[in-house]
Amino acid sequence: MVPVKREDLFKFIKERYPIKTSLPISAVLFWGSALCCGLYDPLSICVGIITSFLALFILRALDDISDIDLDRARGLKRGLVTGEISTKGLKIWALLALLSVFLLNPKPLAFFIIVCLCLFYLAYFKLKRAINPALLPFFTNVIFGAIPLYAWSMAREASLEGTLFLMLFLWTGACAHDFSHDVHALDETPQHIETPSVILGPKGCARLSAILYALSAAFGLSAWFLLRPGAGFLVALMATSALVAYLLAPFMAHPDKERAKKFYIWGFVFFTLPLLATIIEKLLLKLEG
Predict the structure, then answer these.
(1) Which of these three, 143, 158, 173, is where a domain ends?
(2) Sorting pLDDT into bands at 50, 70 and 90, what band is 74?
(3) Sign, CA torsion 243/248/251/256
(4) Would you state the pLDDT for residue 286?
């Protein structure tokens, strides 16, 4: 029997899933999506935030476990690579988190969406080694698109079509973020390590991220038009789109690791700030009313 050690959980959270960033991000992703989809019940929002936080933790843990050999080849000294964090122990913590997710979501539609997401990622991690590394971000980031659908399932007040566009906005935005911040020159990674930047070439990877940012902005605009979450969403989307366009111009001309670093934060801000703006706007309206 594998001992369940709290140290494995605490070390992994500190190293790879710090609460000071992961919890606010989970809150913005779900709460913002919920408000866009017409869900205002405080208890449901709290359950959704906790569920999103646990789900993203599970994905982070399983993704890191699946990449141990790759991280070792890259020379990374993460706890899972060095053995400081037990792989089997972390899997048990992920399983306990999954059981908590199911217990928190007894409503049939939400439960069904979670089961479908679990089956998707079960297949993904089984087949991951056979998938071209340049395609992996499209699979890994499905969870971001699932969050608005999960939020919609709790209220079913908003347009499903608008919710689908919100799903595409978050999914393509998350994919664009991954492709852009992982770009590097061909001499900036260890040999024999296949990355999207190696497979597509730095310029190809940068151009793909630009296309995805443009698509995400269009999907976000469509979601705003159909869901009408408020002016804050639109203003934030326009501001972040302009910022990303400004950063993309020199990046596409000279793609390298130094320019890609800027997208690690700003690429994420691109698709989360409109949701945060929606939260702030709704809170201010409630205070005024």
Answers:
(1) 158
(2) confident
(3) positive
(4) 87
